[in-house]
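Tutorial handout. Part one gives the primary structure; part two gives the three-dimensional structure as tokens.
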Amino acid sequence: MSREPAVDRGRIRGYLLRRLAEDERQSFEESYFADDALLDRVEAEEDLLVTDYVLGRLSEEDRRRFEQALLGTPYYRERVETTTRLRRRIARDQGVRNLGRGAAPRPGGGLFPGRTGIVVAIGLLCVLLLAALVTALRLKQQLATLRAELSTSAPAPVTAAGGGVVPSTPSVVLQPTEGAGVSVRRVERLAGSPLVLVFPRDLLPDDATSWRVVLREESGAVIWDSGDQTVPAAASSDLAVRLPPGVPAGGRSGVTLWSGGTPVFSALLQIAEPPAAAPR
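Part two.
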């Protein structure tokens, strides 16, 4: 059962455009994680939002919010580019069909001028619908994993390469740096908020079957242990775990990626609170 049985369209679009406050965004995410019907509405509104942006139907404020909050992410940038290409292709085929209708029929030229353009347009629409269906199925599979993660103390891995609605929880990609030395990442995060750690799949050996993430204080004491996780079947899928809210606390801590009882990568994570906004 949905935690929020009646969610208006304005609030869904406000969530997608990052207009909601931090606590309200987190509450909304938990709602659609637990309600497939609400998730379907979010996906439908997301399609309309991308289409409205491409067609120039957004207000100046919404267009600016879309470009600042969403267009920089690979997922939305790819959706906008794909929708733009399809729109141009369909418009070009429509123009060819209209030109064919206005021209005088040639002797023996056939009974259906412009028929090829109609077939091409229908084919492109079918491809677009198929792509949307595949994206929805991948997102629902990812959300099923996230539901299991929220109900257990040790989060299950989330495939970072999957598409779908982009959550507001910040993600940090940890990977080796060029040259010698330990990789150090500084992250600004509000106190008590969650964090997602992402590791490239190629850090694990090719024959690896499991992996785990361990966080330690500078003294060596264990802060958090994800437990053994199954290596995703897709070779290109990154490894991702969502840390509990507030873990690790502010300051420096060590992050180690293990595979088969052997450490394969270590990094230092520096957590700091974002600077306070200047008074107006």
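Part three, for discussion. Helices lie at 9-16, 22-33, 36-54, 60-69, 74-102, 115-150. The chain has a mean pLDDT of 77.
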